Amino acid sequence: MNSMRWNIFLAALALALAPVYSVADTDVYRYAMEVNAKRAEGLLFKYTRFNSESPYPCLRLELINPKDDWAVVERKDICEMNSLSLANDFSYAGFSKIEFHGSAVSFDFNYLLNEEPGEYVQTCTVEAKGRSLSEMKCTDPQAAN
Hints:
By secondary structure, the chain is mostly beta strands. It has helices at residues 2-17, 23-27; strands at 32-40, 43-50, 59-65, 71-78, 80-81, 84-85, 90-101, 104-113, 119-129, 132-133, 137-138, 142-143.
């Protein structure tokens, strides 16, 4: 009987210590189209671009600590631009020209609005500063060529 209690205790302990992930968080990786990473500020700076035609058309930026069992130090999911939802408020929205520059990543955000004609583009930058990601800085929207 004591060994049964011990096994139940170990099973409960393993469940309590196991990382908790929501189905939605792990499920989005099926929509990943492009992944790249670079060392910055002693951490790994990683981006994941998801399919713009999927239910999760976002750009994910992560700082990962390889010395701490690859723990995610900070995550920024860019699922809104200009206070509009990428999934619902644009006719088309996508990210392109994603590039690392030192400890920053820059990208173009290309989009078509639901109510206005024409394609627009903005260039944005996010920096890794220590163990955090800066606020995103973007140019004003320009008509795409």
